[in-house]
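Possible regression after last week's pipeline update?

I re-ran a chain I had predicted before the update to compare outputs. Posting the input and the new output here so someone can diff against the archived version. Not blocking, just want to make sure nothing changed silently.
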Amino acid sequence: MDYAVFDRLLDKKAVQRFRDEALNPESPKTRGTAQNDDIYFQGREAQNKFYDALPDIVARYMAEISKETGRDYKPFTYYGAKDADRIVVAMGSVTECLKETIDYLMSKGEKVGLVTPHLYRPFSVKYLMDVMPESVKKISVLDRTKEAGSIGEPLYLDLRAAFYGQKNAPIIVGGRYGLSSKDVDPAQMLAVFENLKLAEPKNDFTVGIVDDVTFKSLDVKEKISLGEPETKECLFYGLGADGTVGANKSSIKIIGDETNMYAQAYFAYDSKKSGGFTRSHLRFGKHPIRSTYLVSNPHFVACSVAAYLELYDVIDGIRENGTFLLNSIWDADETIKRIPNKVKRILATKKVKFYIINATKLARDIGLGNRSNTIMQSAFFKLAEIIDFEEAQAFMKKQAYKSYHKKGDQIVELNYKAIDVGANGLVKVEVDPSWANLKDEVKTQDVVMYKGTPFVEAIAKPINAARGDSLPVSVFNGYEDGTFEHGTTEYEKRGVGVTVPKWIEENCIQCNQCAFVCPHAVIRPFLINDAEFAAAPEGVKTHALEAKGKELKGLKYKIQVSSLDCTGCDLCVEACPTKEKSLVMVPLGESIDAGEQENADYLFKKVTYKDDILSKNSVKGALFAQPLFEFHAACPGCGETPYITLATRLFGDSMMIANATGCSSIYGGSAPSTPYRKNDKGHGPAWGNSLFEDNAEFGLGMHVANETMRHRIHSVMDASIEKAPNAIAALYKDWIEFRDDRAKSTEIRDLLVPLLQANPTAPGADVILSLKQYISKKSQWIFGGDGWAYDIGYGGLDHVIASGEDVNILVLDTEVYSNTGGQSSKSSRAGSIAQFTAAGKPSQKKDLGYIAMTYGNVFVAQINSNASAAQTIKAFEAAEAYPGVSLIIAYSPCIAHGIKGGMGKSGNQGELATKCGYWPIYTYDPRLEAEGKNPVKITGKEPDWSLYDDFLMNEVRYASLKKSNPEHAQALFEHNKKDAQRRWRQLNRLAMADFSNEVLAVKEGE
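New output (post-update):
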């Protein structure tokens, strides 16, 4: 509508009255008082007249807008047969799907309709009855919510109330649909209308799921698409972070902006940060597209990952004579050999046109690395015939320039090449009609090898295979509280790494640094004893070395990669310090063919983790411990996860973790993938996710609750120690003395529990045994990113820091809101580009470490594992041992930084961050003050400030600003550097201060 229409409709006198009532010191008043029970009730009721008047006001304005637009706007609208006897009442996007369904049923002579509320509150019975056909006999009300404990959902109860007391009132039933954005399609809406045909329609129903517990669900028949016949439906399967979704968004923009066609897109993801399963549902047509449901009967299917044909139902719904495009690393003959019989059968049965393209190779050949998305997009436009291909090429290049010109001409030219080769690289594969008779292969090896618990088999695997929608309610019996089993990622074996590391043992110096940097814990060093070595696969025996070091004499040493769990990030290769690399990247298939996954399955499952031989305060010693955080779906090369993996190696069997919402919660616990796992004793990190804003308090609450139980144990022991047998009394005494020592209290638990179980009548035994899980001191951790710690959760974090309680806080600092699209945070630095700071952030970074140090009783460490692994390990050990609040701030390279060369180079960039002064590393231990020692210890040399600009220009978040606005960028970069230098001088002053007089001050105070 033109602004002139708004100008005509706007009641300017009312606007002026509203403005006159605004708070202003020239007509001061008080608003928002704290009211007590004497007047609050009356004040609320005094507002009724405004709510009563609102429906008529809204209706009047809707009528005026209808005149202008030609569309029908009312508080309630009706669609369907004038003499309908069956009506559905629903709001929101489902109404478009219902309209398609109604058109379909009316074409078959059925009398059905839809009432849609557009003004839900205040609810107007008057306007509802204005549109309700008098002929209606039965009404089904759909709510997209679950009001547990209520006799019905809100809209359903409103409809029942509206007809209360009326003669010949229709039968009204209610149901729930589409919770958590579950897809709602015409087949489900047909089931709703079928339900209304029954003499006694089911009430309180669900639709779209199978409820085999309380049997509330409606039966839904086969999927059906009711869109315009001319509309082209397309379905794309991609790998998370491979650019497929971005390319499809570009396609939608091209069609929408450059042609007179209509376009629609919906992108479905799992919750994995990267390497997950993405589906792009696209529709293109000459008429408005009303279909608000996923594409299930596509004309065109594209799949970027050949392995998906084994894992998912990629082409099951493809239409007859449809087109299928596969990104295949093999030629046509080899592709035919590799694809499953099930896929071949569908291709033949539905007479599908089948094309392949080696987009992976083409992308590498032209210099795009693994980014094959533009090539696949070009191939799509060539095959789908939505618009003329030459036009499409021009539009794609226009879009590529718009998207990439800020990153430089070279990137633009690479994408131009990708657009050209995408059409030329297509190969048509002839579909043999005889494939229609093929039987499915029977593959038992993987099923047996990676068979998990009943939970994994019944819940986790179907969800990971994109069949979670079909799971019945009964499989969740026993999991009603939302609890998921630990360690389900062990059974995923996603195989998403195009290339994976191969160990060259003759070059290896057994430093374990490759395992230290591995973001996914897929590469591990093993110490193998004689019995384990004798039972090992030949691949282990052939390549194992004699372990170096007198403590390790008699043991074999091997570095092992779990190929199917690796994401191919290259970090381990980059980190390897040997002159001739001990690791090289090879194609995944080569690694599998060499038996490396078989070797990994043996070593990871059958060989013990010998972490008690060497001290864990060194890289070599710590890395022989079992990681209790593994195979998660963080982005390849993630800079956050190595810190978490290290923490679980050091303290995992006693960790309690409160995790703020963000990247670390998504890769840490997205159903059904649970990367935290148990050790062979059944112990491991207990993990819970809280909100973004209150995670620190959540973690503090965990600690207080645990300590409350331990105080009770203490009280029982105190009261029982004189009466208990000598052996038990001695352990009671030891526990009281060492209750806050994690290692000692664990040793005492292991002695005390069996003794009490053997003497159940001993004083205090019954109570202590009921609380046995609290005897060992827990290591309480609070995890989160900088968006939580510096911004949204800072108030709670500050409260916990000030509490003095024995909790450990790990801030995974990426300097940007990584999980929500890359918004700027208070941790972002001057000159960095992110959402909301597109022109470069003007202000400097908050100094969280310095703020925490001002309390004087908080252990603080700023760490960077790429700059000093030793300092990182010592900081973790010291923080956990500190009897109070500890705060670790960890430098975490992120894909959002746009590091030159990709995340595989993030280790080098991380090292440079400390070397140039961008990220100094230090610890602050308040206990040293009492000894007259300086509590601040800086690790490393004086920064080389001449490298600072090199560091900034290695990251797109800085470099892109210099391309678009060089003068402004230079000013902000100088601000950034000066702030870093100011922080260094401040830190250096603290580190050089004399604290010897603190001892005298304490003595004088005494």
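Follow-up from reviewer: compared with the archived run. The mean pLDDT is 94. Marking as no regression found.
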